[in-house]
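Hey, quick one: can you model this chain's 3D structure?
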Amino acid sequence: MSWQEYVDRSLIGAGTVSKAAIHGHDGQVWATSAGFKCDPAQIKSIAANMKEDGSGDAVLSKSGLNLDGTRHVFLRSMDGKSVYGRKGGDKGCVIVKSNQAIVVGGDKGCVIVKSNQAIVV
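Sure thing. Here's the predicted structure for all 121 residues.
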């Protein structure tokens, strides 16, 4: 399965996120859902500040999580592997860091960062 198929079938197809992307730690796009554009520099910055000891949380809190032209308020990080954000009302995002990639799931119209979103992403 290609990265694009993973985004389309496993992330978007699961129905728990409406936008998704996979980037390298350098910010470069590997795959993305239609119309979802994340700035590579922002993804690289988020990746660099996802630290197990939480030392990057202050930077993420100050800058927010800018995805697809929308600033999400940083809510929390977990062990340097996942970051959660919120954009008013019921919109949110979850970003997960693997050894080689950053997986981004964005949500429009669902309760912010439902537990099944984190499992899917």
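One thing worth noting: Confidence is low (pLDDT under 50) at residues 109-117.
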